[in-house]
Each structure stands twice: as structure tokens, then as C-alpha cells.
Request: fold
Amino acid sequence: MRIQWFAEMLSERGIQLSERQNEQFHIYFKLLVEWNEKMNLTGITEEEAVYEKHFYDSLSLTFFKDFNQVKSIADIGSGAGFPSLPIKIAFPHLKVTIVDSLNKRILFLKHVVEQLGLTEVSCIHGRAEDVARQADHRDKYDLVTARAVARLASLNELCLPFTKKGGYFASMKGASPQDEVDESVKSLKELRGQVEAVFNMALPFEQSERHIVMIKKLEPTPKKYPRKAGTPIKEPIV
Reply:
């Protein structure tokens, strides 16, 4: 085990990593650093920092939601695979769909999935607005995530169409998102979502703030949403 505190702190949260899972995280770290030399995946490459600011941060979502009760997740704008791949490693039963608009990142993610021996992970190259209109993905997922992608009023339109009725969209933020929550009242109403809770924590060493806005999907997505690609970011529903 390379990073001792990682497994110990997760154990305190009720997540017990096997030797195989610890090895998967280590391989993931090595692949991230290796591929980062060829393409821009992250500005964080020091091992301890990757474990804290990417792996532990991604898994923080599972501190506030019982993932043993979740079967399927969609990760929108996943970048280098956060938060979905660390969550998948820790909870192997999950069926994971990753959507990203940059094909180079999708190629990296497919390589990681293959090298880690993960199953039931689908990496889709496309815009969230387009993928969300496909029958296989619309109103389908127990939980949808997005980590530091855009402001909440835009994210609601990108992510809630993937979320099934009764499911959740978890928006992972840094500093307090209260102004974004206030700004997103109209988009939540239009997209049939409701803020159920806002959780907060601090990273164990850096102590920087993290917040998770947990939004429940109340009804299926109205037919007119999402609007065409690019519109939710440029013209959020406010």
C-alpha cells in the first residue's frame, strides 16, 4: 500500500478497500501522470495530492449517499474520470456511464478502464445535450454527477435529463454554492428538480472546502430540454 492514510480514512467512513482495489488506485495514478505528459488532464501530479484532491475528493460523494443502494451512475464532463472512476473502484457493482465532449479524454478513460479491469463502464464521446436526448440515457440513472464543470443553473439542464424520476443529481462544488443555488431556482422548476440537501466537508490535509448539492428529480424531463448544444452554458435558465 503506497498511501497509507487513504485506506485508513476511507475505512473510517465505512469503505474497506481490498488489496486489489488499492492496486487499482495506484495504477490509475500512474496512468494519469503518464498520459498527462501527452495531454492536459490535470495540473495535479504529485502522488499525495492526486490521492487527496482527486481520489479522496471524488469518493467524498459516497460519504453522504449510500452507494450500496445505487445501481447506475452517469458522470457528465468527467475529464480525467472524476468522480466516477474512483467511485467505481470502491463500489464495483455500479454500472457507470461517462460522457465527455473531448475524444482524447475518452481514449484515456477507455485505457484506464481496460488497464484496471473494470467492467460495466461505458465511455461516451459527445455533448451532454445530445446524449441526454437518446432513449438509452434519458431519465435513466439512479445518480448523476458533475464535478466543478459549470454553474448550477447550467448544470441542471446538462445533468437532470439523465436522472431518473426519484433519482438524484449530485453537483460537486468547491466554495459555498449558496449563490448558485439561489440563481438556479427557475432552472430547477423547469427541469423538475428540487434541492434536498447541501453537504460540506474539508479535504483532510489541505483543508479546502468542498460542497455537494444533492438534487432530487421529481418528474421526467420536459421534451424541450436540454436545448441545443452550447445553449445551457451560454444562456442558462435564470
About this structure: The longest strand covers residues 163-173. The chain has ten helices and seven strands. Residues 85 and 238 are 32 Å apart (CA to CA).
